[in-house]
Each structure stands twice: as structure tokens, then as C-alpha cells.
């Protein structure tokens, strides 16, 4: 390791006899050591009087595997890097400059990861350096009123700033900031910009328990569905008791349940309290299967798709539903079916500009996506607002919309046509048709539990709210709404209920894990934070053999899979393995001179073109990872590994994308580094909805561990996004 991290409060003893310490800053091509490299190193020394004494700075050429990126952040040109000294030479110079001094960095874990990686590659031993993180120290010692980014803290302490996002200016600011923080740490005070000094976030959440509610609610005599002699099998928490009380009142209930806060046991409490028939509606099949074993006999657990399938099958639609087994229709086949490949088609219906700029396959993909948008919406008709035109510009989008809508209407007609027997349908297709029929769920006087309500599509949410004859209990966490890409939208935000009640005590994890989770909740401006289990300790730090490794992307999941297999382990894989295998088949197609159908590869004509693309597009991180995987292992080995691990043949750790990990928990969890790349890229863009979804996904990931969490890049990243 480059240096061991210590608390700023412990640095005084380490500084004994040493007049100077050193602030280090780096510029890199990205924020993951798997795909990014150091291209600039700087350091600034400061003495005990707060005076900058010496400086060191150098560009560095990382060598093999270097792909230039993030120029829009740091402004360093590729030709400057390629003419710089080798990274090994620069590292030797940096270590000579540091000597045995204390190291300082703003977000030391970032510098530590990259320098440890590069020192290891160069076989250089840094010795036994120690250092502290000014960002972590500032979070404890300073209330800025905004955030704890370097620029904000510099402004707070009136430190003169010059060019930012270059290593040397940031190293100077970091050194001066470290001196200010050491001064505060010596005094033992907390500095605030407001009139009342306080720790950051102290006014955000009161951890005092709410007023105790009665163990059993006063049940109205007219409620004939109360289970006679009901007594809870355990003493409800004050929050659960309040929910139970509301359950026997009038109107619907909305429960805002944080990660691990006992939503299932709360629903069990409600189910056991009544003789009424209850339909438990889950977002995914696995949760519905589990619920069948956990609830009493008056509860019928199912998914909305299963309910739709049963109803349509009972109405004689079994043969049409059989088209589900046909798999996925390739875009070129759909294009021919819609006539998009006919000469003059695009020009006749869209004009010469559309014909010249958009391929028949792109038009077809837009039409397919338009139908998907329609299926997720509550609308009864396909409308212009459902049209997807990809990344087309405004004026081109105007020309495209009528044509894409026309093609989408034809595509939807083919989907519904029972005489078209060779065309696949999807689960969203039959669900939409069922919803268009205006289904009725259950009977008057019954109860509907809607679990994971935050992930319902607007179409499903609209249908459920129409069930006026049922008492409805909506349960979910708006901060775990992570299926926007699949049409999911936080239904809880649009639901008006007579009672809105929180569940905030997480029985899954302890105080340190709750602190990380709450960092992400604050970045989302969540109205409720989670409270830790007072009897649970969750260790935070590196985890060598976790029960689960969570990744952001499929490519990172496969990368982790191959790394663990090479170390002699046999992990299991929870990810979209069909999509992964489809991409690998697409890579083979391109290598053998055929066009690929996978979405990541569809627009390339050869594998060489893919390799060239990632050299010039610094945002193509996932594609770059796939290229490295294929070059390292070959397609055949990757296909075999993915197939075996997806079948659950391994007995080792579970590797899962965060999307697939939702609703699950393990004792020990490690977060993969690929989250940081995507978070940083999205944060630099303008899509605030996408950024919010990435934050929610990070919150889901860091709340899966019970006893040990290795948060990787998600430990402190939330603060940098504020």
C-alpha cells in the first residue's frame, strides 16, 4: 500500500520532530484502476507555520494499456502525456520528495488506490508511509453550509485558488487546507460558518424514538375481519404499532420502508391481525415465492405479470401467449417485417433527410422502443409522446416522429394479431393488453399489499389505484427506485393515502454501515434517514473473501468472475447472463465478418472498428472492459464461465449486479470499483434524473451487508456529488 491512513487527531504525535508534511494530488484518465491510469503527479510541502516550502510536479506516461480520457476535466492533451517520462520514474521522484514525511490528500483513498496500483506494477516499495484525508477530517470538523469539496473548503478558509483540476494547484490548496484542519484538531473545536457551531447533519435527523403507540390498536366493533384473540408473536416497534393502528382505520396506507427496516415482518403483522383475504403483489417472482412460505393462509402471493398471464390464459389466449417462447426477434428481422428495408421507404414517409441520416435498423429500434414506452405508460393509445428517437437532434426528431409513430403502430398491431404466429412477444406486451382490459383484482372488503411500490410502472400504478373496492397497503422505498430504464417510476410519489408512515430502524446493519447509507440518502434529499440496529456491529473496510461482490455493470461482474476463478474460487453469477452471452456472440459475429445484433455492438461493422472506437471515446468504459475481457480470455472461455456460474454450479461468493441484488442481503459484501466510473461520468453531465437513479443504486448496494461491508468507491462518493 502507498500509505496507511490515520485520523487527523492522531497526527500530532506522528509529526513530532518533523517540521513538514506533504500534500499529494493526481490527475488520471478516469476513477477506476481497472480502466484508468495516472497521467500527472504533484506534491506540495508545508511547514508547521503554514508556509509552502517546496513543490514537485510532473506529467507521467503510464505505458501499455493507457487510454487517454477525462481531458474535459483536466485539460491535459494526449500528446503531452505520450512525451512525458515513464510513470515508474515519476513515482521514484515522488517518493524521494516525500521522504519520511506525513502524507496528505483530499480523498486519500483515491490517491491511495491509484498509487498503490502503479507502485505495484512498477515493483516499487514505498516503505511505511502514513497519511490523513482532509476530506474525511473536514466532514468531522467543519460545517461549510454547502459541501466539503476542495474548492468549497478553500473558499471557506479564504485560501486563494488558481486553476483547478490540475494536480499542482490542487496540491497547494490541499496542503494549506491540511494546516487549517490540523489547527482546528489541536483546538478540539468544530468550526461552522453559521452562528451556532454544530456537527454537519446534526439537525437533519433526530434519533429519538417516536412516542410509544399502544401495543394493540383500538379495533372498531364494526370491523368483522379482525382475527379473534389476535396477539402479535413479537412486540411491535413503535413504528410498527402505528402502522397496525392505521391498518384498522379507514383509507389506504403508504409505508416508507428503508433498507432492512423489517417491511416483510410488518406486513406479516398486518396479515396475522385479520381474517380478510389479502393479495400480496410483488415486483419480482422470487419475492412472491418467498412470501408464500412466510405469510398465513389468508394471503395469496403473486406478481402482476403472473396475474395477467393467468387471466389471459383463462380467456383463451394460451396460443398467443405461447409466442413468449420464441425468444427475441433480431432488429433486422423486425425491420423487414415492417418494410423498413424496402427501397425508398424512409424517404417516402420521412423525407430525404431521414433517409440520408437514419438507417432502417435505427428506425426499427426506435419503433420497438416506442412500443415499450407505450406499454409502460397508462395511456390507452400510442401517441407522439411515446416516440423514442434516440439521440437525434431537435430538427431531425421532428421529421422522425411521424414515421416512427407509424412504424410503432404497425409493430403493435403485429404484436396483437393472433394470426402472426412467428413473431415473439414480451412479458410487457401481454401485461399491457391485460391492463387495457381494465382488470379487477379481488373482491370488495379484501386487502391488497403492494410491495416494492417504488418500482411499479405508471401503467401498473394507474391500474392498482383504480381498485377502489380494496383496502390497499403500499410498501416501498423511493430511494430504492432503480428500474427507470425498464419503465419503473416511483409510484409512491403519485399515491395519495390516508396514512403515510415510515419504517426507519434497519435491523440489517450497524452504525458504521448506516452512516454510509445515510450519506447517500442525504445526497438524495431523502425525508427519512435510516437508524442502525443497536445490537448489530457492521465492520467497514477491505474484505478479502466476501459472501457477495456487487457490481454496477454486467461487464464488471464478468471481470470479477474471471478474477475469482483465476484465484481458484468458483463463484456464482447473478446478472443478465442472456444479455452477456448475446454480447459475446455479437463479438464473435464481428470478428467473423458478420453484423452483430447486440445493442452495444449493433452499429459497428467489424471488431477492429470497436477497438478503434474506444481509443477515441473516453466515455466507452463498459465497452473497453468487454474488449479487455475478450482479449485476455477469449470468447469461448468467457461463455463457458458465464454459463457455468449463472447455473449456480459454483460454491463460492455470489457476484451480482446491484440491480439483481435488490431485496437480498449477505453477511459480507464487497462493492466493485466500476460504480465510480459511471457516477462520475453521469455527475459531469446534465441528466439529473439519471444521476438520481445512480445515487439510488449506490444506496441499494451499500445496504446489502450485515456484518462486514467493503464499500470501495461508494464510501465517501456521495459527498462529492452534492
Q: What would you note in describing this structure?
A:
The structure is a single chain. The radius of gyration is 28 Å and the shape is globular. By secondary structure, it is of the alpha/beta class. About 4% of the residues have low confidence. The longest helix has 23 residues. Strand 10, helix 11 and strand 11 form a beta-alpha-beta unit. A six-stranded mixed beta sheet has the order 1-6-5-2-3-4, with helices on both faces. The protein has a six-stranded parallel beta sheet with strand order 11-10-12-13-9-14. It has a six-stranded parallel beta sheet with strand order 15-20-19-16-18-17.
Question: How would you summarize the topology of this molecule?
Answer:
Blueprint: E1 3-5, H1 11-14, E2 20-28, E3 38-47, E4 52-59, H2 71-74, H3 78-82, H4 87-98, E5 102-105, H5 108-121, E6 129-133, H6 134-141, E7 142-143, H7 150-156, H8 167-187, E8 191-192, H9 238-247, E9 253-257, H10 263-272, E10 278-282, H11 285-294, E11 299-303, H12 304-314, H13 318-321, H14 331-338, H15 345-350, H16 352-357, H17 360-376, H18 394-416, H19 427-436, E12 447-450, H20 458-465, E13 471-476, E14 499-503, H21 511-523, E15 539-540, E16 548-551, H22 554-566, E17 572-574, H23 577-591, H24 607-616, H25 621-633, H26 635-646, E18 654-657, H27 658-661, E19 666-671, H28 674-683, H29 688-702, E20 705-710, H30 717-720
Parallel strand pairs: 1-6, 2-5, 5-6, 7-8, 9-13, 9-14, 10-11, 10-12, 12-13, 15-20, 16-18, 16-19, 17-18, 19-20
Antiparallel strand pairs: 2-3, 3-4
Helix pairs in contact: 6-8, 12-19, 14-17, 17-18, 21-29, 22-25, 23-26, 25-26, 28-29
Amino acid at each position: 500500500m502507498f500509505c496507511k491512513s490515520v485520523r487527523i487527531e492522531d497526527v500530532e504525535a506522528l509529526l513530532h520532530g518533523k517540521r513538514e508534511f506533504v500534500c499529494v494530488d493526481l490527475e488520471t484518465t478516469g476513477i477506476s484502476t481497472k480502466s484508468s491510469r495516472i497521467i500527472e503527479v504533484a506534491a506540495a510541502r508545508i511547514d508547521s507555520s503554514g508556509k509552502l516550502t517546496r513543490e514537485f510536479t510532473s506529467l507521467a506516461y503510464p505505458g501499455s494499456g493507457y487510454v487517454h480520457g477525462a481531458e474535459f476535466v483536466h485539460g491535459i492533451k494526449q500528446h503531452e502525456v505520450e512525451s512525458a517520462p515513464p510513470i515508474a520514474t515519476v513515482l521514484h521522484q515522488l517518493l524521494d520528495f516525500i521522504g519520511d514525511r506525513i502524507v496528505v490528500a483530499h480523498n486519500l483513498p483515491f490517491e491511495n488506490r491509484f498509487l498503490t496500483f502503479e507502485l505495484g506494477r512498477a515493483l516499487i516499495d514505498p516503505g511505511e508511509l502514513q497519511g490523513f484525508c482532509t476530506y474525511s477530517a473536514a466532514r468531522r470538523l467543519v460545517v461549510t453550509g454547502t459541501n466539503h469539496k476542495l474548492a468549497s473548503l478553500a473558499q471557506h478558509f479564504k485560501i486563494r485558488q488558481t486553476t483547478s483540476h490540475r494536480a499542482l494547484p490542487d496540491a497547494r490548496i490541499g496542503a494549506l487546507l491540511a494546516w487549517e484542519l490540523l489547527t482546528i484538531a489541536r483546538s478540539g473545536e468544530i468550526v461552522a460558518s453559521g452562528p451556532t457551531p454544530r456537527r454537519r447533519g446534526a439537525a437533519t435527523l433526530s434519533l429519538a424514538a417516536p412516542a410509544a403507540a399502544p401495543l394493540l390498536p383500538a379495533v372498531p366493533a364494526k370491523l368483522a375481519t379482525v382475527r379473534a384473540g389476535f396477539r402479535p408473536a413479537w412486540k411491535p416497534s413503535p413504528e410498527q404499532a402505528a402502522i397496525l393502528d392505521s391498518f384498522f382505520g379507514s383509507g389506504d396506507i403508504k409505508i416508507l420502508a428503508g433498507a432492512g427496516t423489517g417491511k416483510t415482518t410488518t406486513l406479516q403483522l398486518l396479515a396475522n391481525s385479520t381474517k380478510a383475504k389479502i393479495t400480496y403483489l410483488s415486483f419480482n417472482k422470487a419475492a412472491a415465492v418467498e412470501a408464500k412460505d412466510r405469510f398465513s393462509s389468508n394471503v395469496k402471493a403473486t406478481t402482476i405479470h403472473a396475474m395477467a398471464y393467468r387471466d389471459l390464459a383463462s380467456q383463451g389466449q394460451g396460443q398467443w401467449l405461447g409466442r413468449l417462447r420464441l425468444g427475441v426477434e433480431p432488429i433486422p428481422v423486425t425491420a423487414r417485417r415492417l418494410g423498413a428495408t424496402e427501397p425508398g421507404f424512409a424517404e417516402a414517409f420521412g423525407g430525404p433527410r431521414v433517409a440520408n441520416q437514419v438507417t432502417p435498423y435505427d428506425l426499427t429500434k426506435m419503433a420497438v422502443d416506442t412500443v415499450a414506452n407505450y406499454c409502460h405508460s397508462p395511456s390507452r393509445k400510442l401517441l407522439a409522446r411515446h416516440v423514442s428517437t434516440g439521440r437525434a437532434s431537435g430538427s431531425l426528431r421532428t421529421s422522425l416522429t411521424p414515421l416512427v409513430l407509424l412504424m410503432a403502430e404497425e409493430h403493435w398491431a403485429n404484436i396483437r394479431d393472433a394470426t402472426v404466429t412467428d413473431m415473439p412477444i414480451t412479458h410487457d406486451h401481454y401485461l399491457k393488453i391485460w391492463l387495457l382490459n381494465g382488470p379487477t383484482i379481488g373482491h370488495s372488503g379484501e386487502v391488497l399489499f403492494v410491495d416494492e411500490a417504488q418500482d411499479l410502472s405508471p401503467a401498473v400504478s394507474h391500474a392498482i389505484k383504480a381498485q377502489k373496492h380494496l383496502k390497499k397497503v403500499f410498501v416501498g422505498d423511493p430511494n430504492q427506485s432503480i428500474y427507470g430504464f425498464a419503465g419503473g417510476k416511483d409510484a409512491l410519489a403519485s399515491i395519495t393515502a390516508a396514512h403515510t408512515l415510515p419504517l426507519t430502524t434497519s435491523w440489517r446493519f450497524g452504525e458504521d454501515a448506516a452512516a454510509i447509507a445515510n450519506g447517500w440518502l442525504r445526497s438524495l434529499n431523502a425525508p427519512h434517514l435510516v437508524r442502525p440496529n443497536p445490537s448489530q456491529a457492521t465492520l467497514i473496510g477491505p474484505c478479502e473473501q466476501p459472501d457477495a461482490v456487487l457490481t454496477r455493470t454486467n461487464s464488471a461482474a464478468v471481470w470479477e468472475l474471471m478474477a475469482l476463478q483465476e484465484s481458484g474460487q468458483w463463484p456464482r453469477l447473478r446478472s443478465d447472463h442472456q444479455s452477456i452471452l448475446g454480447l459475446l456472440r455479437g463479438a464473435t459475429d464481428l470478428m467473423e465478418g458478420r453484423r452483430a445484433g447486440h445493442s452495444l455492438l449493433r452499429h459497428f461493422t467489424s471488431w477492429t472498428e470497436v477497438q478503434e472506437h474506444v481509443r477515441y471515446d473516453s466515455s466507452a468504459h463498459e465497452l473497453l472492459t468487454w474488449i479487455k475481457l475478450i482479449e485476455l480470455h477469449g470468447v469461448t472461455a468467457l461463455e463457458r464461465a458465464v454459463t457455468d456460474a449463472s447455473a449456480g454450479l459454483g460454491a463460492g461468493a455470489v457476484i451480482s449486479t446491484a440491480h439483481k441484488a435488490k431485496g437480498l442481503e449477505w453477511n459480507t459484501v464487497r462493492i466493485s470499483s466500476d460504480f465510480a466510473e459511471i457516477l462520475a461520468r453521469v455527475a459531469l453531465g446534465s441528466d439529473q434524473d439519471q444521476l438520481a437513479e445512480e445515487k439510488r443504486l449506490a444506496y441499494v448496494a451499500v445496504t446489502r451487508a450485515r456484518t462486514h461491508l467493503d464499500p470501495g468507491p461508494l464510501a465517501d462518493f456521495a459527498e462529492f456529488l452534492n
